[in-house]
C-alpha cells in the first residue's frame, strides 16, 4: 500500500523516484531479463504471491490505486494480455476465465517471499480487482507460467484503460510526456464513438443482407407452399383424373415438394400387384426364418473346423424355428429336411465340408436363399455408404434388409440382384413406411425396362443398348464418334444408370427430381435424363479418354447445375420408334417362334402378364 | 503422359471379396472401409514402369454377383491380364474359383495372364483359407498367386505390377501378338509415334485412346 499511496497523487514519477520507493524489492527477473518489483500479498488467501512491476514501463508512473483491499496479488501482463481485456468492448462481463487468459505469471516461488505485504500494486490491478472476486484459479495460473512482463497503464478506470489502449496501442514513446487526463478522456470518447459508428454500420449491412436473403427465401417458400396447396387441395383429391392435366404436369416438372412426395410417388407407382401390409409382413417373417436357418447351414458348411466354432445359440435358434415353419405349411422347406441336413453337417469331416456345400448348391435352390440373404446383408451396408443411414448402426438398416429379403421371398424368380438396394433405399428415404416402400418397390420393378435388366435378359438388353446408341447418334453424332474412337460402348455406363435409376451417378438432390419425372413420364424419361447428361457435358466428354469418360459418367459432379440439367432434359426429343414398341415387336416375334413352348416358370409367366409400363 | 504399352486388366471374383478396394488402393493409394457396391463395371487406370518402359494399366473392375456373370463375360474380351480375387476369410469365395476360372478361360484369349489373389490377409484371425491352399490351387491351374490386403496395401502394388511384368515378358517372348488388339495390349505413342490411334476396337474393345490416365 505504501507504494500506492506514494504515487497516488502524482501525475508524473521519475524512474529514480520509483527506484527509491521500491527499495530492496527490486529483483532481477531472469526470464524477462529486466529489473522487477517484488511484493507479496498479506492475506492468507494470497500468501506467497509475488507482485512484479516492470520498471521499464514508463506508464508505471501513472499508477493509480483504486481502493482494492481484496486484490492483494500482483499482476504481470503482457501487452497482448491487455489487448485481450480491450477486446471485451462488447460489454460482456469479464469472468475469471478472461482473467486466466491474461498470462499472469509468477516470478518467485512462495518460499522466497520476504514477508512484506501490501507493497506496490499495478494500475492494471484496478481492472483485475473488479474482474475477479475469486482469486484461487488465478493463483494456479500464476504458478504455472514463467513468462512475465509487466504492463502498466495510465488509467483511472477500467474503461479508460480500454479506450486509451485501443486508441493508442503503442502508447507514447518513453521520451515523450504521457497524455494528460483530459486527453485520455477525449481519446476514449472518440474511440467509443468510432466503435459505436462501426457497429451501427455493421448492423445496418447485416440487416440489409438478411432482408435480401429473406425476401428470396420468402419467395421460394411462397412458391413451395403454393405448390403444396395445389397438390393437397386440387390434385391429390381427384388423383386419377387430375394427374394428366397440364397444370399438374407443370407443377410436377418443377419437382414435387418433399412433404407431398411420399403421397405422389405411391399414387404414381400404383399398386397393380395388390400388395397388402399383411403380405409384406408374411414375406418378412418368412424371409427371416429362411435366412437365419440357412445362415446356420452355411456357417457350418463353409467352416473348415465346425466343431471349434460350434455356436450353441445357433442350435437353439434352429430348434425355435420349428413352430414357425409349421405354421406355414406352404413353406417349401420343411424343418425335418433341414434338421436332417444339419445332422449331416455335424458328422461331416473338415475336408468334406466344401463338398457338402457344393452338393447342396446343386441339390436344390435352398442354397440360393442363403446366398441371397448373405448378399442382402453385404449390400445393404454398401448402399449409399456416404449417408450412413443403411449401415449396421444406421436407422434404415433393418427396413432396407426387410424390404429386399421380403422381395426375394415374394419373387423368388428374381430374388435379390445388386442394384435393387439402391431402388429400395430411394423409396425408403422418400416414402412413409417400409410397407409402402415395399409395395412401391414391387410395383416399380414390374416395369418392362427394369425387369429386362433385373432378369438379365441379354437379348432385350441389347435392344435397349441399340435403341440408346441410335438416340446418341442422332442427337450427338460427334460424341457418338468419339465414343467409338475410344472404344466406349453405351452399356458400360447405362447399366449402372438403369439398375439404380441414376441414384448412384447423380447428386442425391437431383435424383429425387429425376425420379419424380420418371414416375410421371415413364421409361422414356430415363433415356432423356441419361442423354441430357451427355448433352450437358458433351464438350468435356469429347476431351476425355476411355477411363475418364466412364469415371465421369459414373459419378457426376456434385455441383452440377440442376436447373440447367432439367432444361436440357426438356430440350431432348427422342427419335421414334419408341422403345416399348421395339421391345413389343421383339416379344411378339419371340412368342411367334415359341408359341407352342410352355413357359417353365408358371409363377413368372403369370406375373409377366401383369407387366406394365408406367404411363 | 505417353506410354509404350497399354494393358487391359479385368478384376473378377465373388461379391464382397474386395475387388474395388484393391483397385482403389492401387490407383488412389487409399482404403475405404465401406465401399459402394459395383454395378456392371467400373474403371481405373494407372501408369507403371517396367524395364524403363511406361505402361498404362486400364483396369476393369467387375460386379461380383453371380447374376451379373452374363454381363461381365463380355468384359473379358481384349483383356491381357486378370486378377482373380477371393477372400481368405470366406471359404465359399475360394470354392467358387473353379467356375470363375472356367468363365475366364472360356471368354478371354488363351494367353491372358491370370493372377490369383487371396485378399484380406490382414484378417488373419478370421482366416478360413490357408495360404498353402491358395498356392496349391494356383500351381494346379498355372496361375501366379499372392495374398494381399487392400486395407494395409500389403502386396497390392506387387499384384498389379507382377501381372504386368508377366505380360511384358510374354510380349518379349513373342507369345502375345501385340498387333492384335484383341489380346488386350495396345502399343502406345511411345513405341509407335506415327500411329498413336490404331483405330477403334469393336464392342468392349480394349483401346484406351492416347491420352493419359
From TrEMBL, chain A:
Pfam families found in the cross-reference section: RabGAP-TBC
GO biological process, one term: vesicle-mediated transport
Residue ranges, compositional bias (Polar residues): 323-335
Cellular component GO terms held in the UniProt record: cytoplasmic vesicle; vacuole
Stretches the record annotates as Disordered: 50-74, 163-186, 302-335
Sequence intervals crossing the membrane: none
Stretches with biased composition (Low complexity): 164-173
Record protein name field: Rab-GAP TBC domain-containing protein
TrEMBL record, chain B:
One cellular-component annotation, GO: Golgi apparatus
Subcellular location: Endomembrane system; Golgi apparatus
Source species of the chain: Blomia tropicalis
SUPFAM superfamilies: P-loop containing nucleoside triphosphate hydrolases
Lineage start: Eukaryota, Metazoa, Ecdysozoa, Arthropoda, Chelicerata
Protein family per UniProt: Belongs to the small GTPase superfamily. Rab family.
Transmembrane feature ranges: none
Keyword terms, alphabetized: ER-Golgi transport, Golgi apparatus, GTP-binding, Lipoprotein, Membrane, Nucleotide-binding, Prenylation, Protein transport, Transport
Name of the protein this chain belongs to: Ras-related protein Rab-2A
Domain of life: Eukaryota
Region spans: Disordered: 187-213
Amino acid at each position: 500500500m505504501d507504494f500506492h499511496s506514494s504515487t497516488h497523487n502524482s501525475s508524473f514519477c521519475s524512474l529514480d523516484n520509483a527506484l527509491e520507493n521500491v527499495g530492496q524489492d527490486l529483483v532481477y527477473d531472469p526470464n524477462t531479463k529486466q529489473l522487477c518489483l517484488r511484493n507479496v500479498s498479506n492475506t492468507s488467501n494470497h500468501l506467497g504471491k509475488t507482485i512484479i512491476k516492470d520498471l521499464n514501463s514508463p506508464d508505471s508512473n501513472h499508477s493509480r490505486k483504486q481502493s482494492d483491499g481484496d486484490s492483494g496479488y500482483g499482476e504481470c501482463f503482457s501487452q497482448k494480455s491487455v489487448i485481450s481485456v480491450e477486446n471485451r468492448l462488447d460489454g460482456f462481463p469479464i469472468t475469471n476465465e478472461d482473467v486466466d487468459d491474461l498470462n499472469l505469471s509468477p516470478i518467485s516461488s512462495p518460499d522466497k517471499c520476504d514477508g512484506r505485504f501490501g507493497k506496490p500494486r499495478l494500475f492494471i490491478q484496478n481492472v483485475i480487482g473488479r474482474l475477479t472476486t475469486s482469486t484461487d484459479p488465478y493463483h494456479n495460473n500464476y504458478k504455472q507460467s514463467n513468462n512475465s512482463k509487466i504492463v502498466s497503464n495510465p488509467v483511472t478506470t477500467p474503461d479508460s484503460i480500454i479506450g486509451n489502449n485501443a486508441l493508442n496501442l503503442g502508447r507514447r514513446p518513453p521520451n515523450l510526456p504521457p497524455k494528460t487526463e483530459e486527453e485520455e478522456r477525449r481519446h476514449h470518447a472518440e474511440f467509443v464513438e468510432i466503435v459505436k459508428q462501426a457497429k451501427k454500420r455493421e448492423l445496418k449491412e447485416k440487416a440489409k443482407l438478411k432482408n435480401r436473403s429473406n425476401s428470396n427465401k420468402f419467395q421460394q417458400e411462397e412458391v413451395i407452399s403454393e405448390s403444396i396447396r395445389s397438390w393437397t387441395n386440387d390434385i391429390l383429391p381427384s388423383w386419377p383424373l387430375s394427374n394428366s392435366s397440364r397444370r399438374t404436369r407443370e407443377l410436377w416438372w418443377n419437382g414435387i415438394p418433399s412433404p407431398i412426395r411420399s403421397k405422389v410417388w405411391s399414387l404414381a407407382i400404383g399398386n397393380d400387384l395388390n400388395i397388402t401390409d399383411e403380405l409384406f409382413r408374411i414375406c418378412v417373417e418368412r424371409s427371416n426364418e429362411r435366412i437365419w436357418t440357412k445362415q446356420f447351414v452355411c456357417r457350418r458348411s463353409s467352416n473348415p473346423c465346425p466343431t471349434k466354432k460350434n455356436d450353441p445359440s445357433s442350435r437353439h435358434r434352429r430348434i425355435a424355428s420349428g413352430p414357425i415353419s409349421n405354421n406355414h405349411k406352404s413353406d417349401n422347406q420343411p424343418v425335418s429336411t433341414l434338421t436332417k441336413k444339419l445332422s449331416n453337417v455335424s458328422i461331416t469331416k473338415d475336408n468334406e465340408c466344401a463338398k457338402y456345400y457344393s452338393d447342396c448348391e446343386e441339390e436344390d435352390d435352398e442354397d440360393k436363399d442363403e446366398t441371397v440373404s448373405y448378399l442382402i446383408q453385404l449390400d445393404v451396408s454398401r448402399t449409399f455408404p456416404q449417408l450412413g443411414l443403411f449401415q449396421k448402426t444406421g436407422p434404415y438398416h433393418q427396413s432396407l434388409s426387410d424390404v429386399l429379403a421380403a422381395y426375394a421371398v415374394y419373387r423368388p424368380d428374381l430374388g435379390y440382384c445388386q442394384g435393387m438396394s439402391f431402388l429400395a433405399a430411394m423409396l425408403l428415404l422418400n416414402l412413409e413406411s417400409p410397407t409402402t416402400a415395399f409395395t412401391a418397390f414391387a410395383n416399380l420393378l414390374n416395369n418392362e425396362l427394369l425387369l429386362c435388366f433385373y432378369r438379365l435378359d441379354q437379348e432385350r438388353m441389347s435392344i435397349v443398348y441399340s435403341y440408346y446408341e441410335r438416340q446418341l447418334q442422332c442427337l450427338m453424332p460427334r460424341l457418338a464418334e468419339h465414343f467409338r474412337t475410344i472404344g466406349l460402348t453405351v452399356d458400360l455406363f447405362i447399366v449402372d444408370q438403369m439398375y439404380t435409376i441414376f441414384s448412384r451417378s447423380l447428386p442425391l438432390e437431383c435424383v429425387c427430381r429425376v425420379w419424380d419425372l420418371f414416375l410421371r413420364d415413364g421409361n422414356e424419361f430415363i433415356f432423356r435424363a441419361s442423354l441430357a447428361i451427355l448433352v450437358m457435358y458433351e464438350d468435356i466428354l469429347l476431351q476425355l479418354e476411355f477411363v475418364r469418360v466412364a469415371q465421369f459418367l459414373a459419378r457426376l459432379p456434385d455441383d452440377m447445375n440442376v436447373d440447367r440439367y432439367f432444361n436440357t432434359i426438356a430440350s431432348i426429343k427422342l427419335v421414334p420408334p419408341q422403345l416399348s414398341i421395339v421391345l413389343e415387336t421383339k416379344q411378339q416375334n419371340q412368342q411367334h417362334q415359341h408359341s407352342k413352348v410352355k413357359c417353365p416358370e408358371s409363377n413368372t409367366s403369370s406375373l409377366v402378364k401383369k407387366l406394365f409400363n408406367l404411363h | 503422359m505417353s506410354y509404350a504399352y497399354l494393358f487391359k486388366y479385368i478384376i473378377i471374383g465373388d461379391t464382397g471379396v474386395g475387388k474395388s478396394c484393391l483397385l482403389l488402393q492401387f490407383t488412389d493409394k487409399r482404403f475405404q472401409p465401406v465401399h459402394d457396391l459395383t454395378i456392371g463395371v467400373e474403371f481405373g487406370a494407372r501408369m507403371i514402369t517396367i524395364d524403363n518402359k511406361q505402361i498404362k494399366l486400364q483396369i476393369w473392375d467387375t460386379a461380383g454377383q453371380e447374376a451379373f456373370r452374363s454381363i461381365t463375360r463380355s468384359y473379358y474380351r481384349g483383356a491381357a491380364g486378370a486378377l482373380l480375387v477371393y477372400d481368405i476369410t470366406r471359404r465359399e469365395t475360394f470354392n467358387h474359383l473353379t467356375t470363375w476360372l472356367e468363365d475366364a478361360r472360356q471368354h478371354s484369349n488363351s494367353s491372358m495372364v491370370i493372377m490369383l489373389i487371396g485378399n484380406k490377409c490382414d484378417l488373419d484371425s478370421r482366416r478360413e483359407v490357408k495360404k498353402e491352399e491358395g498356392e496349391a490351387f494356383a500351381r494346379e491351374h498355372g496361375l501366379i498367386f499372392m495374398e494381399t490386403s487392400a486395407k494395409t496395401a500389403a502386396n497390392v502394388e506387387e499384384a498389379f505390377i507382377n501381372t504386368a511384368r508377366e505380360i511384358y515378358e510374354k510380349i518379349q517372348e513373342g507369345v502375345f501378338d501385340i498387333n492384335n488388339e484383341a489380346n488386350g495390349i495396345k502399343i502406345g505413342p511411345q513405341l509407335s509415334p506415327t500411329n498413336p490411334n490404331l483405330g477403334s476396337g469393336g464392342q468392349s474393345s480394349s483401346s484406351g485412346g492416347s491420352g493419359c490416365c
